[in-house]
């Protein structure tokens, strides 16, 4: 009996110490709010731990959006359809979910406008605050990691007459046609006349005649017209890859389109004869066609430069005559 009474003070102090430690642990995990006089205590508003919803809005188009649709015809390429429609080929591919190398087929319907942006889900409303015994949990959300966009590389010969770089165009699919078994390599750069560097590309005159019509952005076919005689050489204004060679665009006759970089294309219309095919690499000054009058009333070269799908004045890029 005496031993039991002697243990009672010891057990009392052990229990008191345990309660004190438990109280300290509770205080460390709680958030205490000092209410104003006459107000009941409240808890902190809950912090959402849900990651933000990614935006589904398409990036802005590089050109005015024509709207409507286009049905692919035999001989079309994605580049020729974009050229005909006055849009950038990258926008047209994105609007229709067409990945490189941009294979299309006759009868396919392409949208000439971006798809409607998907509606973002509404954020849940916060419930009214209620008194709880434990403190809210605050969770740190790591920031999203952006995926780096690989840099594009100009096509072969696009920077300078003597510079050859890796091409961004491995093939140019033509609607309804099988890929050719092989294409001739680009000819050595031809030193034909003066050159001028603009937009990271070295430009040369595509024909030797005089300019008989200057650029007007409002024209149905915006470019310049260069006089000449039937059969005279039409040369590539800069190195690049042929992305269209055909006669399917009304008003251009026999037409050749060359891609020099992701931003720049050049076009050569009214030719008598085309000498290159889609996917063929060409060098600055290389002959690509013979001058003619197809789609025109006289022998001439209809020459265009487009930047990001928009027609620009070629005289701002070509060297002074």
UniProtKB/TrEMBL annotation:
<keyword id="KW-0732">Signal</keyword>
<dbReference type="InterPro" id="IPR036779">
    <property type="entry name" value="LysM_dom_sf"/>
</dbReference>
<dbReference type="GO" id="GO:0032153">
    <property type="term" value="C:cell division site"/>
</dbReference>
<comment type="similarity">
    <text>Belongs to the E.coli NlpD/Haemophilus LppB family.</text>
</comment>
<dbReference type="InterPro" id="IPR018392">
    <property type="entry name" value="LysM"/>
</dbReference>
<feature type="domain" description="LysM">
    <location>
        <begin position="68"/>
        <end position="112"/>
    </location>
</feature>
<dbReference type="GO" id="GO:0004222">
    <property type="term" value="F:metalloendopeptidase activity"/>
</dbReference>
<dbReference type="GO" id="GO:0009279">
    <property type="term" value="C:cell outer membrane"/>
</dbReference>
<dbReference type="InterPro" id="IPR050570">
    <property type="entry name" value="Cell_wall_metabolism_enzyme"/>
</dbReference>
<dbReference type="Pfam" id="PF01476">
    <property type="entry name" value="LysM"/>
</dbReference>
<dbReference type="Pfam" id="PF01551">
    <property type="entry name" value="Peptidase_M23"/>
</dbReference>
<dbReference type="InterPro" id="IPR016047">
    <property type="entry name" value="M23ase_b-sheet_dom"/>
</dbReference>
<protein>
    <submittedName>
        <fullName>Metalloendopeptidase-like membrane protein</fullName>
    </submittedName>
</protein>
<dbReference type="InterPro" id="IPR011055">
    <property type="entry name" value="Dup_hybrid_motif"/>
</dbReference>
<feature type="signal peptide">
    <location>
        <begin position="1"/>
        <end position="22"/>
    </location>
</feature>
């Amino acid at each position: 009996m005496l031993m039991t009474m002697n243990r009672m003070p010891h057990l009392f102090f052990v229990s008191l110490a345990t309660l004190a430690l438990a109280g300290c642990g509770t205080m460390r995990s709680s958030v205490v709010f000092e209410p104003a006089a006459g107000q009941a205590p409240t808890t902190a508003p809950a912090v959402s731990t849900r990651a933000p919803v990614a935006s589904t809005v398409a990036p802005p188009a590089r050109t005015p959006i024509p709207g409507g649709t286009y049905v692919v015809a035999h001989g079309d390429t994605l580049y020729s359809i974009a050229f005909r429609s006055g849009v950038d080929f990258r926008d047209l591919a994105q609007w229709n979910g067409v990945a490189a190398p941009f294979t299309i087929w006759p009868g396919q319907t392409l949208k000439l406008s971006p798809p409607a942006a998907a509606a973002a889900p509404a954020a849940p409303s916060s419930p009214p605050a209620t008194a709880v015994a434990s403190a809210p949990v605050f969770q740190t959300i790591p920031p999203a990691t952006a995926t780096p966009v690989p840099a594009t590389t100009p096509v072969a010969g696009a920077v300078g007459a003597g510079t050859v770089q890796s091409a961004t165009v491995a093939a140019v699919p033509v609607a309804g046609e099988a890929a050719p078994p092989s294409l001739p390599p680009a000819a050595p750069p031809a030193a034909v006349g003066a050159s001028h560097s603009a937009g990271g590309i070295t430009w040369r005159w595509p024909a030797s005649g005089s300019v008989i019509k200057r650029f007007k952005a409002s024209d149905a076919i915006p470019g310049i017209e260069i006089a000449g005689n039937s059969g005279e050489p039409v040369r590539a204004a800069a190195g690049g890859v042929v992305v269209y060679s055909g006669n399917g665009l009304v008003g251009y006759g026999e037409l050749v389109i060359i891609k020099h970089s992701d931003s720049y294309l050049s076009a050569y219309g009214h030719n008598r004869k085309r000498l290159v095919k889609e996917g063929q690499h060409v060098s600055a000054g290389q002959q690509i066609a013979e001058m003619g009058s197809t789609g025109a009333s006289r022998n001439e070269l209809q020459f265009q430069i487009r930047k990001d799908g928009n027609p620009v004045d070629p005289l701002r890029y070509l060297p002074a005559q």
